[in-house]
Amino acid sequence: MTDQVPPQTDSGSAKAGGARGVVDNFLKSPFAGIAPWIVMSLFSGPGRFEEAVSAAFGLALLFFLASWRRGSSFKLLEVFDVIFFGVFIVIGLVASEGTLTWLEMWAGELSNVALAVFAWASIVIRVPFTIQYAKEETPQEYWDSPLFKRVNYMITGAWAAAFTFSAIVGLIGDAVLDDSDNFWTGWILQIGALIFAVSFTEWYPEYAPNKAAQAAGEPTDPPRPIASLFAWVPTFVIVVGVAGLVTDGVPDLIAIGLIIVGSVLAGAYKKAFP
């Protein structure tokens, strides 16, 4: 028998419906711990440090308390969220005007770097941060499974890579282009990296067990094709084109070209993977 592990899906959705079920499933996923960082990295900028860090800290504290209220164990990521943004709140209260100006420019990149370091460190110490969430959705008999561990190492690695990529492109926007609100480095590329990590988180827990069973010659559903990992790309390209038109982030011809390319990709993908 292969080392099977049940897919890490939102099993609670079958038990809880409506808005309460959605919230409960969100709190049980790593997205609750990641959401404050997304807010901070995307919305920090000149004149917005206090607002961005307050929103991030508020979300971090809200999700931490909500998880505790529902009886979940404390997660490393959630604790790190509260501590990091709490420190930023204190710094914002006591910092000089010059320090605040510097933070307004670099807070987004500092957040991306801190989160990337946290994610890579969790892999190094052999406690990938997603595994604490996965254990709440997976029977304990599977926790020591090599496949269960590999799935979480891979998912955590995908998030760590996304955070690292976001930190690099954000740094390019600030240090090289001198434009923290650059359409590409400040928004599109970072959002694309995060969407890829989300897609990988949804795809890999199903792909890995089926692939392992198939390799062992056991009956199983066919693994989802790797191409399904990128099913979001055509829509994303279209949205980028529309956003470019609305915000004047790119020349109109390029924006229209993106919309056309995205539409062609969507049609081609649908035909190839009906």
Notes on the protein architecture:
- It is built from 10 helices and no strands.
- It is mainly alpha-helical.
- The protein has one domain (11-209).
- Residues 7-16 have low confidence and may be disordered.
Quick take:
Helices cover 72% and strands 0% of the residues. It is mostly helical and 274 residues long. The chain starts with 17 loop residues before the first helix and ends with a helix.
Question: How do the strands and helices of this protein lay out in sequence?
Answer:
Layout: H1 18-27, H2 31-43, H3 49-69, H4 76-94, H5 97-124, H6 130-135, H7 146-176, H8 183-215, H9 233-247, H10 252-272
Provide tags for this entry.
mainly alpha, 72% helix, 274 residues, 10 helices
Please mark out the parts with pLDDT under 50 across 5 or more consecutive residues, or reply none. Answer: 7-16
Mean pLDDT: 87
Helix amount: over 70%
Q: Largest sheet, described in full?
A: none
N→C terminal distance: 32 Å
Q: How many structural domains in the coordinates?
A: 1
**Count of individual beta strands:** 0
Secondary-structure-based class equals mainly alpha
